[in-house]
Task: inverse folding
């Protein structure tokens, strides 16, 4: 029982870091411009395919490929922002929800045409680590490490660089920031780019241990919503902790009830938190 | 749009009338076989094998000049199909289209129980015979359909043989863990498996299902108690191979791992070390020992090519080794051909009558359908064989038939006990 | 109120009525199947519009009511031998009751928070049903083929289902119009423009929103039952497809939110476009992407939707296009 709990919890927490990373991206976008990015899932899937193509066709190490994927994610985010989001930023929520969803449809549509919906797989293994009752594939360990690294880098960027500080200023009060001479359009685009970059990287990390299709981003997008709400929407670091919380839950729940009940508990909790503490479990207010 | 469709239908009808009345048309008849293929989506591997098998049959029968009826009419077959994207709502839309627009006379099911089930409703509603291939789930045949016929051994008999094999391998074995995909087919398999195992005195220590499309099996593998003797279950190709891979990565120790659908596929060997020792039930393998002589000894009729002929022609045409999915597709067409020839007609009622009473041997083994209203169309004659991935002297993976005794090509080996 | 004298009242009703009648007279199976799918979406989009269009609340969970109501209706039909008509009404009633209860809790949330909550509800409902044994768990429920016999065979049963769907669609359009032209509806639109101001003006926003949610949830339950009966079975994966919710949203936007005719036009256009793209050799693989591009263009440049745009452009036709 204890052995099972330990290994289950380890698996859950390791995955939790990666969930968290994906959610940090979503949370950042919400925090800066109160947009729920419904194109988050396909971007995660594109991150998976980017890594896959670089690994398979470019023959490069998946972790090296990740850096390229991050760069592409950033540019891609700029693009989505410029084309779909900027114009409707001040319109009612319905518009941004549907605009990002339109992007979702376009990405999935093109992705289906190019990659089909058949599963793909990165055939890459670092062996398994065995400690007592716990056996963990090394790829998952590295993925968790990667997630921590990227979140740390984001933190440093937000708090110690000029553009980072500008992002926080715009998130705080866009009008005031504009009056201070911060070019808000560029900062908004940059935040959106960073958000999609993190999603793409999370996808790349996941692709090293799970098979995937162009639709695989969907479940992670949904998990990101749950995590953001747990950690407080618009609080990127809270999102990482939210991710750990969700991962921990996914590790804990199966010890006590059938695994298939996990989503019922997850989404039930999600609704309850939204109802009773919409600022998030970790939210300050 | 609509009026154009009406014109087209009317035009076709007139054309059909002219062809039907002309003296030339009396000697040759065209029968349209409709089906959907999972060319894309999660079932594409198995789905395409089945279509390859079916197309091979169409080519062969037409190349031989078609099926010859007792009254001298020659029946040629035309295959008409669409991609169903492995999606159920597409299946229903497309079968309605196949029947009404493409005027399909007979239908073959798509691969997988879920999709076939959706197609079965449409075919029965429209009074068309549907031969199912790759649709093993028992539940489809308990719904009161009278025109649906199953070529596969039903799901309830998929893994029960693995229990017998386990008993022979190690009489001391007691604990079995069952983890399956939560879809119709796999659920039917494991429910029957659980009942059978409990009946034989085994203890089912874990009995859980995962969502179709699952990729993370760690939560399930973690729940398997230490000291388990056998892990059984799985679902379809994509999820089951991931499951096998993660079982290996998580250092699973058990005497037997028996999983559905994926192991008999050659692609399964791409898992490398993780495939070694995995056992899988198969409807048919190229090593199968069915022959016209054996059928004769049993007093049954033999129909169609021999195992060797099928295997060689399939290999030449599809440029791949045939698996049971390929054989299933081929035999679905072959059975229709047999029933049409024997009934001397191409209308639903007469062909159904022949199929109801059919009891023959083909390269695929014996085929006999349940004709009682309660389980109409359920396959009674056909049996499973069990294969295991083993390593030869050079360390290369190959498939060994390990069960039943009568057809085995080698001894079974334990999965990994360390 | 002299609503029945307005041409905008009669036009949508007359259109749906004539459409169903033509299909009945044609008596063709393929035409019926196509019309069934299309009409189903017209009804789904119109019922969603009652919430989305009039109150401005974006719900991604409209499909929950289709799924749960449909499941319940199908359960009564297949396990307890209920008559199709009664089962459909029961399915709708269950959806309505659930929406009432859910609405009391969830409708306290505003804007994006509400939208997020509805996504959560959809996932939770699907996961719950796939574990719920009375509804057949993961493998779902099916109706024995013999059940069609009591309606005079499968062919007749399918026609009956179509007729019921037709009646349900007429009912949605009627209700949609009546809500819009009532005092209650004016309150809803005040909520859409500015909820706080509406409350100050005496609109009981929480109650009004919950009632609207209930009304808009009733119809998906009815339609779900009919749809699953037509299919002969129901499984969790088919019953709760998030993308069907979203397609309904797209249709409402396409035609014009807050208008009775809007969702109808949107549904027909969207399905027509989708059907064309699916069969065209160039766009076959790209149909989703092309639909996405259209949606994006509408959101960015014609936010009022097709009917809304016409109304804005030609004020004279307004009284015909409600």
Result:
């Amino acid at each position: 029982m204890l052995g099972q709990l330990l290994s289950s919890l380890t698996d859950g927490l390791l995955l939790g870091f990666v969930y968290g990373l994906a959610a940090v991206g979503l949370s950042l976008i919400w925090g800066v411009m109160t947009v729920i990015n419904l194109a988050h899932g396909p971007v995660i899937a594109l991150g998976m395919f980017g890594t896959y193509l670089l690994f398979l066709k470019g023959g490069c190490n998946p972790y090296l490929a990740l850096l390229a994927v991050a760069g592409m994610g950033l540019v891609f985010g700029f693009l989505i922002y410029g084309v779909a989001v900027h114009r409707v930023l001040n319109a009612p929520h319905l518009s941004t929800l549907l605009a990002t969803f339109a992007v979702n449809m376009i990405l999935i549509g093109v992705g289906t045409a190019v990659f089909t919906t058949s599963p793909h797989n990165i055939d890459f293994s670092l062996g398994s680590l065995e400690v007592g009752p716990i056996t963990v594939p090394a790829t998952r360990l590295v993925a968790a490490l990667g997630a921590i690294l990227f979140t740390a880098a984001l933190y440093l960027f937000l708090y110690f660089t000029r553009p980072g500080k500008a992002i926080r200023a715009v998130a705080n009060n866009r009008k005031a920031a504009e009056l201070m001479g911060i070019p808000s359009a560029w900062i908004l685009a940059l935040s959106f780019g960073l958000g999609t970059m993190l999603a793409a990287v999370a996808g790349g990390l996941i692709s090293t241990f799970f098979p995937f299709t162009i639709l695989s981003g969907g479940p992670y997008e949904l998990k990101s919503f749950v995590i953001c709400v747990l950690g407080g929407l618009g609080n990127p670091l809270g999102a990482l902790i939210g991710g750990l919380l969700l991962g921990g839950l996914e590790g804990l729940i199966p010890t006590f009830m059938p695994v298939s009940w996990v989503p019922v508990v997850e989404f039930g909790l999600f609704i309850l938190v939204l109802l009773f503490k919409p600022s998030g479990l970790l939210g300050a207010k | 749009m609509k009026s154009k469709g009406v014109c087209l239908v009317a035009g076709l009808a007139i054309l059909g009338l002219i062809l039907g009345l002309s003296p030339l048309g009396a000697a040759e008849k065209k029968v349209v076989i409709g089906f959907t293929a999972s060319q894309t989506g999660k079932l594409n591997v198995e789905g395409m094998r089945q279509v390859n098998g079916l197309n091979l049959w169409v080519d062969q029968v037409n190349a031989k000049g078609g099926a010859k009826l007792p009254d001298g009419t020659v029946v040629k077959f035309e295959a008409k199909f669409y991609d169903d994207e492995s999606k159920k709502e597409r299946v229903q839309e497309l079968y309605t289209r196949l029947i009404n627009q493409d005027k399909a006379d007979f239908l073959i099911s798509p691969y997988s129980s879920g999709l076939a089930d959706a197609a079965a409703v449409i075919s029965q509603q429209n009074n068309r015979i549907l031969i199912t291939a790759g649709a093993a789930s028992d539940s489809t045949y308990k719904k009161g359909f009278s025109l649906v016929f199953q070529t596969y051994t039903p799901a309830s008999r998929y893994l029960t043989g693995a229990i017998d094999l386990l008993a022979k391998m190690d009489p001391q074995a007691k604990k079995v863990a069952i983890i399956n995909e939560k879809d119709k087919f796999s659920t039917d398999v494991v429910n029957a498996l659980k009942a059978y195992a409990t009946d034989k005195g085994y203890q089912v220590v874990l009995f859980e299902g995962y969502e179709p499309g699952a990729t993370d099996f760690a939560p399930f593998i973690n729940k398997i108690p230490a000291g388990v003797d056998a892990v059984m279950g799985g679902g379809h190709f994509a999820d089951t191979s991931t499951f096998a891979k993660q079982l290996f990565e998580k250092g699973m120790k058990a005497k037997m791992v028996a999983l559905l659908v994926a192991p008999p596929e050659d692609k399964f060997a791409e898992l490398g070390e993780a495939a070694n020792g995995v056992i899988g039930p198969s409807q048919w393998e190229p090593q199968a020992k069915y022959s016209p002589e054996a059928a004769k000894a049993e007093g049954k009729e033999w129909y169609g090519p021999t195992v060797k002929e099928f295997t060689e022609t399939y290999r030449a045409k599809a440029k791949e080794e045939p698996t049971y999915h390929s054989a299933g597709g081929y035999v679905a067409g072959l059975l229709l051909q047999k029933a049409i020839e024997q009934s001397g007609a191409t209308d639903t009622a007469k062909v159904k009558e022949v199929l109801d009473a059919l009891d023959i041997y083909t390269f695929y083994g014996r085929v006999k359908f349940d004709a009682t209203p309660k389980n109409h169309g359920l396959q009674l004659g056909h049996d499973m064989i069990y294969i295991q991935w083993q390593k030869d002297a050079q360390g290369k993976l190959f498939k060994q038939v390990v069960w039943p005794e009568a057809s085995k090509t080698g001894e079974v080996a334990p999965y990994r006990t360390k | 109120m002299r609503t029945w004298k307005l041409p905008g009242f009669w036009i949508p009703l007359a259109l749906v009525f004539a459409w169903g009648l033509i299909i009945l007279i044609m008596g063709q199976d393929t035409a019926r199947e196509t019309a069934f799918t299309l009409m189903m979406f017209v009804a789904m989009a119109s019922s969603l519009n009652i919430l989305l269009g009039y109150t401005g609340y974006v719900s991604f969970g409209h499909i929950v009511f289709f799924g749960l109501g449909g499941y319940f209706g199908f359960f009564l039909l297949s396990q307890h031998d209920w008559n199709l008509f009664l089962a459909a009404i029961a399915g709708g009633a269950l959806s309505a009751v659930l929406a009432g209860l859910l609405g009391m809790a969830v409708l306290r949330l505003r804007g994006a928070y509400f939208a997020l909550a509805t996504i959560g509800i959809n996932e939770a409902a699907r996961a719950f049903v796939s574990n719920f044994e009375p509804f057949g768990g993961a493998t779902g429920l099916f109706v024995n083929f013999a059940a069609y016999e009591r309606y005079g065979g499968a062919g007749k049963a399918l026609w009956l289902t179509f007729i019921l769907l037709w009646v349900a669609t007429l009912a949605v359009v009627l209700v949609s119009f009546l809500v819009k032209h009532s005092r209650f509806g004016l309150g809803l639109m005040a909520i859409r423009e500015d909820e706080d101001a509406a409350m100050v003006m005496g609109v009981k926003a929480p109650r009004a929103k919950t009632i609207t949610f209930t009304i808009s949830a009733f119809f998906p339950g009815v339609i779900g039952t009919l749809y699953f009966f037509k299919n002969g079975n129901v499984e969790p994966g088919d019953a709760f497809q998030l993308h069907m919710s979203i397609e309904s949203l797209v249709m409402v936007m396409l035609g014009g939110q807050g208008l009775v005719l809007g969702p109808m036009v949107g549904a027909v256009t969207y399905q027509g476009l989708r059907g064309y793209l699916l069969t065209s050799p160039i766009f076959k693989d790209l149909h989703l992407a092309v639909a996405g591009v259209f949606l994006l263009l509408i959101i960015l440049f014609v936010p009022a939707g097709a009917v809304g745009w016409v109304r804005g452009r030609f004020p004279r036709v307004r009284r015909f296009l409600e």
Observations:
- Chain C is about 75% helix and 0% strand.
- The longest strand of chain C covers residues 141-142.
- The longest helix of chain C spans residues 29-55.
